[in-house]
Amino acid sequence: MALIVIKNWDNKNWLSSRQYINSLNNFILKQTRLNSFSNILDIGCGRGKIIGNLKSRLNLKKKPIGIDLVNHKDKDTRIQFKKIDALPFFSKNKVKFDLILIKQTIHLLSIKKIKKLISNCKKNLNLNGVILIFSLDPYKNEIPSFALMKKKLNKSLQRDKKIAKILLKYLPITNLKRFVYTVKIQKNKYIEMIKGRFISNLISMNEKDINNGIQEIKARYKKKLKFNDNLVCFIYKKGKI
Ligand SMILES: C[S@@+](CC[C@H](N)C(=O)[O-])C[C@H]1O[C@@H](n2cnc3c(N)ncnc32)[C@H](O)[C@@H]1O
Fold first, then answer.
1. Is 7 within the bounds of a domain?
2. 59, 87, 143, 203: least CB-packed within 10 angstroms?
3. 160 and 188 in contact (C-beta within 8 Å)?
């Protein structure tokens, strides 16, 4: 599987907004029993704002570790960032974690890598540790799209269903929950996100596809967009198995 470089995912949009991060972290804190001594790892952390916010909220003694293939200049300073692929990270790692977070990243890996990653996550988890894996809800997607984007998204959501089966088999998941966030965004701002190819399905498109898509979005949607960003969260609690 070719490496996909995503640079504009959480670049000044709802995914990096204080409201979104707070709401997501409220959800995360409900699923875990974290305290100021907890060790946290975020695989595919992007700009690291989610775990940066957890550092402040929990008054963590140790900076949470965030790993990613892209080293953003404007990443969160409250995290310990490592520019490394998820699998080689574990071959050197000696720390056990209380939370391993993989949010909207697992679909970017090959099935072989996913299986290895799951096994590494389990081995590197503390006794009462939790693994949280967030993905787009494959049965309920409302992301505003143009036709080609929708086609690619649907293909990727079909693959997500296959990944879900693997997670349920190999982890095994103790619980499955939904995280829903209502997004309100100006159409122009959303078009900027499409131009920046914020989502992996847009990366492989050429300029013409993107420009045609933007015209479709302009024609199809009102000035203000309102939709639900629907995620599923696979929850694995080590002590429960
Ligand atoms: C869709 S973004 C999600 C970012 C962040 N988790 C969030 O939800 O805001 C996926 C991230 O995974 C990173 N990524 C993709 N493959 C990776 C790999 N093999 N190892 C580490 N990070 C990876 C990408 O660079 C990107 O920042």
1. no
2. 59
3. no
CATH number at 36 reads 3.40.50.150
Two structure tokens written together for 74? 């404007």
With respect to residue 170, please indicate whether it lies within any of the assigned structural domains. Answer: yes
214 falls within a domain: no
pLDDT confidence of residue 169? 92
167: in domain:
yes
**Span 45-57, pLDDT tens digits:** 999 999 999 999 9
User: Cα torsion at 34, 176, 143, 222 (round to 10°)?
Assistant: -80
Q: How far is the CA of 6 from the centre of ligand 1 (A)?
A: 7
Whether ligand 1 lies within 6 angstroms of the CB of 48 is answered as: no
20 has pLDDT over 70: yes
Q: What is the rounded average pLDDT of the residues 181-191?
A: 96
Query: Which amino acid type is present at position 75?
Result: K
Query: Is residue 15 lining ligand 1, measured as CB closer than 6 Å?
Result: yes
From 3, 9, 121, the mutation candidate for ligand 1 (largest count of ligand atoms within 8 A of CB) is 9
> In this predicted model, what pLDDT tens digit does every residue of 110-133 receive, in sequence order?
999 999 999 999 999 999 899 999
Instruction: Ligand 1 pocket test: pick from 105, 181, 201, 233 the residue with the most ligand atoms within 8 Å of its Cβ.
Output: 105
What does the alpha-carbon distance between residue 60 and residue 36 come to, in Å, rounded to a whole number? 4
Task: Count structural domains, the chain.
Answer: 1
